Amino acid sequence: MCISHFLPDMLTNRKSAFVALLTLALLTICATYAEAQETTLTLRHAVELAQKKSASAVIADTDQKIAENSVEQIRGLFLPQVNVGAGIGYSRGFPLTLEGSAPSLFNLNSQQSVLNTSLLSSMRAAKSDAKAAAMNADEKKSQIALDTCLVYLELVKLTMSHQSLVQLEGAAARVEKVSQERFSAGVDSQADLSRARLISARARLALVQEQGKTDALRQRLAQLAGLSMGQIVVDAKSVPALPESAQDDDVAAKAVATSNSLKSLQEHTVALELRAQAEHRAMLPTFDFAAQYAVLANYQHYQDYFARPFMRNNVTAGVVIRLPIFNFAQKARAETADLESLRAKKEVEVAKQQVSNETLRLKNSVRQLAAARDVARLEAEVATADADAMVTRMESSQATQRDLESARLVEVQKKAALIDAQFELDQVRLQLMQATGGLGTWFNSGPQ
Predict the structure, then answer these.
(1) In this structure, what DSSP letter does residue 85 have?
(2) Measuring CA to CA, which residue among 247, 200, 192 is closest to residue 364?
(3) Which residues pair with 316 in a beta bridge?
(4) What is the pTM of this model?
């Protein structure tokens, strides 16, 4: 059989296979894109991303590394510092020096501190500053976690209240419709119709405001987590249950003991004390080791001015001793450092009082908001019971359709108020947990 008989079939099969592969690739890309856009972001993952990618977290980590490098800078002064170079020049007459050294074809200088109590105190102060920077970074990351949790919970709350607002708008629209019909029939006045229209307009405004707030919160969460707004889909199930606050615990003392900001401030106070010590020790003797090697040129005519034979290779090594006798400026700097250390100690006391007072305020706010939440829950239950009772009254012709729609409107409003009251309580609970060091344990208990 001729091969030309199979050639058209082979070409057709190849084209079909190519089209199938291309279609499969496009479908895979679209599915991947859709999956990336619709990936649910859990609370725990959002906090983890924010603590790594947010600008505040990066700045805190950078400050910590800068403080750690300061320790290495001071430690390096106790190690040999070697410089290699040359001081090539021409001299006429007695050979003078260039920057304190004879002109040379090649020179090597080495210097290191052997005994310097002031530098030792400065290095200890730098270590304390490094610890303070690490604690400050932990405090900033804790604040980032709190901000992320608050934004996430508010997004969840808006998602939950959206349906209530839609129901509120529907109930308000039905009240407006009934009032319009009663006004047309001459039963209601123009004032009654205007009030119904006002209620409906407020419901529509609440929906518009909710959408704007949702967009702003999604953008804020995207900025914190380093994602695009299209990837922000919150999951209410990923939020762990908030524990009830123990009212008999001494939360103020616990907050003072666990506050990273206070620990950072205390370490900074230690650093200031050590710096004041370093300023005082700057009046004590210091011992440095120094060495120099130089290769001198023959054309400098050193042999014309020195009795001994000229030597091209020269070495100098020894200990440099400094003993400050009169240094009134250094004395003033030491006294200033003492005053700065004293001020820092008092600032720590003030900060402890502020942390304690703020924690007590949060504790009292939790009590008040919990009571307000209970009131809102009872009001919602009463509104639901009134709406159900209105249905019975309407069936027995003791109430009108407008009365029923008004009762349903009140019910939706009370349920929305309950959601708001619960969110306000949760906000303060999160702030109290962050102040007492329990926020990390809480959000880490949720799903990844």
Answers:
(1) E
(2) 247
(3) 292
(4) 0.78
